Amino acid sequence: MDSRLTLVTDDKQRVAAFVASQPPFKPDRGFGEFAAIGYEWDGELIGGTIFNNWDPQAGVIELSVATVDPRWLSRKSIVAMFGFVFNQLGCQMAVIRVSERNARMLSIARRFGFTEYLIPRLRGRDEAETVCTFTVEQWRAKGMERLN
Question: Which residues of the chain are modeled with pLDDT < 70?
């Protein structure tokens, strides 16, 4: 299944525009300094991950993910995404922020083993946000890095 999935690592502006165009993001959203990986299926961009808010001193980076097709989530994309975070950047923790209303992404984070912290009103007066953390130890325990 991974054979039709291609990683896009050389066009971060295109990937950022794609991610920003998907809900809950806004097309004019800026990511500051960032890196990006896109995921193409048969040449069509179907997902992307933005890596930003990197704190090298703390070893923490935030990931913003958007997709229009569940086929982006494969061994190839997982190894690329977290390999970049933990192996290339040397981070000790990755963070994603998810609306309490985004059941699909929260389900993925739970199945993957992220630790969750629900913060009321972080997305506004009427919406909480779940801050999900994933450590290098959790990543290594998964054994995914050996799939390269």
Answer: 1-3, 144-148
